Amino acid sequence: MRYNVPLRQTTMKRAMTSGIRHISTRQALGAALLALCLLLPALAAAQTPSATPAASAAEAPAIATPVVPATATPSPIALTLPRDLSPWGMFMAADIVVKAVMVGLVFASVLTWTIWFAKAIELMIARRRLGTAIAVLGQARAWSEVSGQQDGNDSAAALIGAADTELRLSVDGMSPEGVKERIASRLERLEAAAGRQMIRGTGILATIGATAPFVGLFGTVWGIMNSFIGISKAHTTNLAVVAPGIAEALLATALGLVAAIPAVVMYNMFSRWIAGYRARLADASAEILRLVGRDLDRGAFNQRPAERRRVTAAE
Fold this sequence. Notes:
2 domains; 82% helix; 0% strand; 9 helices; mainly alpha
């Protein structure tokens, strides 16, 4: 029993020593991990400033490089572009074919307005004179009141003269139905001739209105084709290079529409006016036939053959 006490004490000392060793080892590992966690941000912060000076050093020459003004070295393409994009400038810079198309369309537009001015005045004067003649014929009671009283080259005077001529030629055979039929035939032919004379010139308006857009389109196609050829030679698709040629080409289409639209409007207007003029001619012919028929029914033209021949020779 005396030997067991020291043995227990020795065993307890060894156990305490091994526990102390285990505790000290765990503390050392924890302290090492803590120190590593603290050192990692410091190392990252130490590496970041080292990259910043390098980047600033690389950027330093770019900042120090002098800036050359844009006007110092002009582009060769900019020198070839037309500066005047007004209609006259585009016309002068256009191709010879496009220029010919534009000149033709301008001439067609001038011709259109000239025909409109001349034909409008002619129609207004003719309709006014014809209206006055219809009023006189409507108020007359006998053919002698209007026969030989209409002077001038207007349509009403031509109608009255034709009826008077037929009456003189029919002096030997004054059949009422035959005379009126012959007079109506003469008046009908005169109406057709007056209508043809009045419609003269409007066919040019119809032609210009139908063909001017296509002529302008031809100039546009030709100009755009030249623009694409210029693009292939310049080896660039820059809008500054393409736009002037296309604008010059589209100017031909614009001129075609400027010439065509007024021509179509004027042609339709003259068609309505001439139709009204023909209707007034028909009214004048009807008044003449009524006057002649009234005198035929009265027997105003029933004279003896010798008297008719004397009257005809005197006239």
